[in-house]
Amino acid sequence: MRVLVVYGSKRGGTAGIARMVGGALRGAGIDAEVRSGDEAEGVAGYDAVVVGGALYSSRWHRHARRFVKRHAAKLRDKPVWLFSSGPLGHAENRREDRPPVKQVQRLLNRIGARGHVTFGGRLERNAKGILASRMAKTRAGDWRNPERIRRWTLDIAQQLRPESPDPAARGAPRGRPHPS
Ligand SMILES: Cc1cc2nc3c(=O)[nH]c(=O)nc-3n(C[C@H](O)[C@H](O)[C@H](O)COP(=O)(O)O)c2cc1C
User: Fold this and answer.
1) Whose CA is nearest to atom 17 of ligand 1?
2) Residue 178 confidence (pLDDT)
3) Which of 7, 168, 172, 179 could staple 18 via S-S, CB 3.0–4.6 A?
4) Quick check: is 115 in a domain?
């Protein structure tokens, strides 16, 4: 089982989430590779794909967006999960079921992705850029939640298992056969 984890990130926060996803998949015994969307070559040879994008003005970072568009036809034939990363602040992250922004919803529909989640974002106090530095005055901080990211990833790992390890779930008889 090989999984490709692709991200679009401007300031590194979403790249960090992608690495956490990759680490959790590997911890679950799955071979995972993590790549930026502008570096990932394609999806051939992978059994499943996770794509995550940083949110900027309610749009995904272009490296994530373009990756999905470029490989849409092939992604349709694989199990794919999407994540967005953005909301800054406790109040903004109280809801765990935040729906995807419109643009991401359209990508999700186009490739028939299995799911989407929005994780909290990160903005450093010394962020560069006119808008970012202004925003950082009131909203700098790290709202990425490693435990939540791990839970989401382990759920994916569970769905990717070829068959349940529980013999009862496969209809096999429980326990050892009785000695006769
Ligand atoms: C200029 C600017 C615009 C942003 N717009 C949004 C937005 O529309 N929605 C959102 O949830 N977060 C928004 N954010 C927060 C970022 O998504 C967050 O900082 C994220 O972690 C950035 O990811 P990156 O470090 O991978 O680039 C914005 C941040 C900046 C600096």
Assistant:
1) 86
2) 44
3) 7
4) yes
d(CA 95, CA 93): 5
Its pTM stands at: 0.91
Greatest Cα pair distance, the chain, in angstroms, is: 80
Q: Is 10 in the pocket of ligand 1 (CB under 6 A)?
A: yes
Instruction: Pick from 55, 83, 88, 116 the residue to mutate for probing ligand 1's pocket: most ligand atoms within 8 Å of its CB.
Output: 55
Judge if the beta carbon of residue 98 lies within 6 A of ligand 1.
no
Q: How far apart are CA 103 and CA 69, in angstroms?
A: 12
Residues of the chain where predicted confidence (pLDDT) is lower than 50 = 167-180
Over residues 104-148, the pLDDT tens digits come to: 999 999 999 999 999 999 999 999 999 999 999 999 999 999 999
- Here the CATH number for the domain that contains residue 116 is 3.40.50.360
Q: Is 142 in the pocket of ligand 1 (CB under 6 A)?
A: no
Measured in angstroms, how far is the CA atom of residue 178 from the centroid of ligand 1? Answer: 61
Which amino acid appears at position 52 of this protein?
Answer: G
- Work out how many domains the chain is built from and give that number: 1
On whether residue 176 sits in a domain, the answer given is no
Name the residue of 20, 21, 123 whose CB sits within 8 Å of the most ligand 1 atoms, as the mutation to test its pocket.
Answer: 123
Q: Which residue has the tokens 């989401």?
A: 152
